[in-house]
Write a structure and sequence with these properties.
alpha+beta; eight-stranded antiparallel β-sheet; Alpha-D-Glucose-1,6-Bisphosphate, Chain A, domain 4; 155 residues
């Protein structure tokens, strides 16, 4: 199967630490993951080398491994298989098609503006729909990050 890479970026008017929290904390990820699949969430501690399970409300999803975690800078997950009806599987065609695919998030900050860049390996057949979902997810990340920043400034 042919893979393509989705590359997107967005500027946020908040420190990168706020964006980092929105990228990794469950109370935020559940909100922006919904742009890909309603009810989606991650089971992981986000430490380099840790397993990361990305599940939806039906118990299906993807199995990954955190390959890079440089706090407030870069987080990258490499996919290793699929979850089907709550069971991890690595040998089906679908699992083999995602194996080795990566999703990487990079943050850089300049003069109080954070740039979030994502790269996501994608099967060609899903490229268009996932690219649109990423546009929506990045907007949600921006909204959440800026709301978090305003709340903490008032505190």
């Amino acid at each position: 199967m042919e893979n393509k890479i989705i590359k997107k970026s967005i500027e946020l008017s908040v420190p990168k630490e706020k964006v980092w929290d929105v990228l990794l904390l469950d109370k935020f990820t559940r909100v922006w993951y919904a742009e890909f699949s309603e009810g989606s969430y991650a089971e992981t501690d986000w430490k380099a080398g840790s397993k990361a399970l990305f599940k939806d409300s039906s118990g299906s999803g993807m199995v990954g491994k955190v390959v890079i975690n440089q706090p407030n800078e870069v987080i990258s997950v490499e996919y290793q298989g699929m979850i089907v009806d709550g069971i991890e599987e690595y040998e089906s065609d679908d699992a083999k098609n995602v194996k080795g695919g990566r999703e990487t998030y990079r943050l850089s900050e300049k003069a109080g503006i954070t740039q979030l860049s994502i790269e996501s390996d994608m099967l060609a057949e899903y490229f268009e729909s996932m690219s649109l979902s990423w546009d929506k997810a990045l907007q949600k990340i921006k909204e959440l990050s800026e709301a978090v920043s305003q709340t903490s400034e008032r505190a």
